[in-house]
Amino acid sequence: MKRSDFRFFHRLRVRWAEIDMQKIVFNGHYLSYIDTAVTAYWGRIALPYETAFKLLGGELYVKKATLEYHASAVMDDDLSIGMKCSKLGNSSMVFEAGIFRGDKLLVSGELIYVFADPQTQTSKPIPEALRHILLIYEAGQPVVDLKMGSWSELKTMAAALRHEVFVNEQEVPVELELDELDDHALHAVVLNKLGQGVATGRLLQPQAHVAQIGRMAVSKPLRGSHLGRMLVEAFIEAARQRGDHEVILHAQCSAEVFYRKLGFESHGDVFDDAGIDHIGMTLKLN
């Protein structure tokens, strides 16, 4: 087993609580590391587990888990957990896992899951939609689609996702979340292969040759899966195509580093918007 066997990795750092009396990671924690990576894997294929598997009509249950130990991890090791779906049966699926420190394989593992009815816990065939998503991801194909359009075209999915993130999660008053600018904006929604809206945003033009990105929202279980980056890059390209000279946005301070990595520069003082600290940011277009 090598790192090159995997296209998906989840990184984590060994914590003090995971070390045993031998000053190495206690053997049972490696299964927790792999289980954490499986959860991140669902995020990478754009399936928010709770809502997605409800749509699919079943749940996954572990039938068998095996680990083989090759070397030990120690305190503060930066580990990469490779994960891939290697086999699909009628109702079962096999995931292979490799826990690496750099290129060194520390632990290899295999998990066998069974797709089953959550009420009776009896097996049922893997839905074709789920089978398709797993196969195309492992084949290196996209697992999401980005759709752009008007508010009337995308309102149903965009509004629901924005309500989930801004109103329910961040406690923004509902009367501040929706405004009259939606009718004049270019909207985008990222959809997974089940047709669920998993990320959204809008692009305004507050003045000639200036674009403004706003209402960026990504479903919580899928953050860190590059969906936000996909939206921003699509809006930048749309702004460039219509002849805008710069793109501005008001970033939540917690997201400032994310936008900096995409080329935006901060300016001005931190200000409050709906009870959340924001900072102005700008990207010049060539």
Could you give a quick summary of the protein structure above?
With 286 residues, this protein is of the alpha+beta class. The chain contains 7 helices and 12 strands.
Lateral strand order in the biggest sheet: 6-7-8-9-10-12-11
Main sheet attributes: strand count, strand direction, barrel closure:
7 strands, mixed
Top-tier CATH class of the largest domain:
Alpha Beta
Uncertain regions: pLDDT < 50 for 5+ in a row?
none
CATH structural fold name of the largest domain: Aminopeptidase
Domain module count: 2
CATH homologous superfamily placement of the largest domain:
Gcn5-related N-acetyltransferase (GNAT)
How much strand content do the residues show?
Answer: 35-45%
Which bin fits the share of residues in helices?
Answer: 25-40%
General shape: globular
Which H/E pattern describes the elements? EHHEEEEHEHHEEEHEHEE
- Please, how many helices? 7
Mean pLDDT: 95
Task: Give the beta-strand count.
Answer: 12
Radius of gyration: 22 Å
Q: What separation lies between the terminal Cα atoms?
A: 45 Å
| Category from helices, strands and their pairing | alpha+beta
CATH architecture of the largest domain: 3-Layer(aba) Sandwich
Oligomeric state of the chains in view: single chain
